[in-house]
């Protein structure tokens, strides 16, 4: 084994490029000669040339299924034959197909929701996805009424576990937080069983909500009288609750989520991103709504893939809330470094309890100094600073996820054991 990490990463990138090119040649020139027609059902997935026709199913098979819930852009569907539920997501086909965008169906990506099969109609592709269900007994089923999720998100777990201690904040603060919650549609009605890691606000608030103005880092300080107030995850308090502004004479007190727990969640997200990148798939707009929490407490990334007939679209709100990298939506073609920015933005929120967009309401520019609260470890501060670089070429992870995994923030993570 070559001891030089940079050379090893360069070889890996070259091999990936060669395999990707080989797949393009096969799809464009050899697939029809191999006996298939020109439809997506005879394509191949990822870089392993695994036939995906085994995942294809006739769209007529959906007729016997029953829709039991609608959540944003996906449906919870029940199979009457088994009684089990699955998630159905529809992808509208583009009017123009392009050979530049090949179909890639990732396979074997750790900590990502599984694609069980897919259906193709004249105007849509329907994804039959694994229904990840969180532990309903362990988590309070508080969801955003306009965007109920089919499971628990990481954010909703934080919302249920870390609550505002009303006695520790002045009554005006508590009432203001209650009012803000009502404005953004947070109710106490039971949600469904799947949970998003970041979900009282389910990651991104409804489009009708007003974008908040964050504090000026240069002048904003917590009041001496309040021992605990709420921050937000995006538009609302981070799942309820809880970055502490406890004034002990030195600014912010530590955010209630332990860094060791954040390290584990972050490692799981990173392994999912690495698996996607190895198979040629970029997320581009990774945001809290894409992070689920299963019954065992592990992060599960929602399914990401690439389809020839489907035009990639980035969530505009993810861009506004700084979950998407600055180059996404611009003239530059996004690279793997764009997902490293998204990872950094999510990690910023998990470590501080405050969304990046709140502390940087005007966005981040080339010479913006990243605002980091007191109390973060040196490793966490270093990682966030290296991830949230405006220039993608200077961003940690631009040369491959392996370098990111070797950062001191992850020094205690047993990577091989985690994958196994």
TrEMBL record:
State the protein's name: RPKL1 protein
User: InterPro entries recorded for this chain?
Assistant: Intracell_Sig-Traffick_Protein, Kinase-like_dom_sf, MIT_dom_sf, Prot_kinase_dom
Q: Which domain of life is it from?
A: Eukaryota
The Protein kinase domain extends over 60-410
GN (gene name): Rps6kl1
Gene Ontology molecular function: any one: ATP binding
């Amino acid at each position: 084994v070559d001891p030089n990490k940079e050379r090893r990463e360069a070889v890996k990138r070259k091999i990936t490029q060669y395999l990707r090119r080989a797949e393009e040649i096969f799809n464009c020139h050899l697939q029809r000669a191999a006996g298939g027609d020109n439809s997506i059902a005879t394509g191949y997935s990822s870089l392993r040339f695994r036939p995906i026709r085994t995942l294809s199913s006739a769209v007529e098979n959906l007729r016997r299924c029953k829709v039991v819930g609608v959540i944003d852009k996906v449906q919870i569907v029940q199979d009457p034959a088994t009684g089990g539920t699955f998630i159905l997501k529809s992808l509208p086909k583009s009017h123009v197909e392009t050979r530049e965008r090949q179909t890639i169906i990732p396979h074997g990506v750790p900590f990502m929701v599984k694609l069980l099969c897919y259906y193709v109609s004249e105007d849509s592709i329907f994804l039959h996805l694994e229904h990840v269900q969180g532990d309903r007994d362990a988590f309070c089923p508080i969801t955003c009424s306009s965007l109920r999720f089919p499971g628990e998100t990481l954010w909703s777990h934080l919302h249920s576990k870390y609550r505002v201690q009303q006695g520790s904040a002045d009554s005006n603060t508590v009432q203001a937080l209650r009012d803000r919650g009502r404005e953004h549609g947070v109710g106490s009605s039971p949600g469904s069983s799947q949970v998003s890691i970041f979900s009282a606000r389910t990651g991104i608030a409804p489009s009708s909500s007003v974008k908040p103005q964050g504090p000026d880092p240069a002048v904003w300080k917590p009041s001496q009288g309040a021992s605990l107030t709420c921050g937000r995850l995006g538009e609302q308090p981070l799942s309820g609750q809880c970055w502490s502004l406890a004034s002990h004479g030195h600014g912010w007190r530590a955010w209630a989520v332990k860094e060791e727990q954040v390290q584990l969640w972050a490692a799981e997200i990173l392994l999912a991103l690495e698996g996607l990148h190895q198979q040629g798939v970029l997320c581009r707009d990774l945001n809290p709504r894409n992070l689920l929490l299963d019954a065992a407490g592990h992060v599960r990334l929602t399914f990401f893939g690439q389809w020839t007939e489907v035009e990639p679209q980035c969530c505009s709100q993810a861009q506004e809330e700084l979950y998407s990298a600055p180059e996404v939506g611009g003239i530059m073609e996004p690279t793997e470094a764009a997902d490293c920015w998204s990872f950094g933005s999510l990690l910023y929120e998990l470590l501080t309890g405050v969304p990046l967009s709140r502390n940087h309401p005007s966005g981040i520019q080339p010479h913006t100094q990243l605002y980091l609260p007191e109390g973060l470890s040196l490793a966490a501060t270093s990682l966030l600073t290296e991830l949230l670089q405006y220039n993608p070429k200077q961003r940690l992870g631009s040369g491959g996820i392996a370098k990111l995994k070797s950062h001191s923030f992850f020094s205690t993570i047993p990577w091989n054991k985690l994958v196994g």
